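debug: dumping io for the single-chain case to check the tokenizer round-trip. Nothing else runs in this session.
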Amino acid sequence: MTIETVRISEKDKTYLIMLKRKTGIANWNVLCRWAFCVSLSEPSIPPKEKLQSDSPIEMTWKVFGGTHADVYFALLVQRCHQEGLTISPKVLNEQFKLHLHRGIAFLATNPKLNSITSLFELTTNPSM
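debug: decoded output
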């Protein structure tokens, strides 16, 4: 059981463009990994919402996760277990999209994030 394709909304595409400028991180997949992990570190459950996949940006799960794709998948499964969710392809896909979207929005709208250094500080010091 795995996620096949990662699709990004047009709104998230705009956020990722901003994040590329601020951090200097050139690859969508790397920014998405940071965003996903930031969302997973947040103890609250991401709000359910209908997410659009209206952007031409998409990547395979293997591109998203790179050499650590299995680790990211295990983190998602663990989070679903923590929240008492059924582990099924549908639930995993939905939860992944919600966490990715929340993480991208969180990073892009954080006024203190203005460089790769501040991204690192933000992830090591959540009160930032």
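debug: round-trip ok. The beta strands are 5-7, 58-60.
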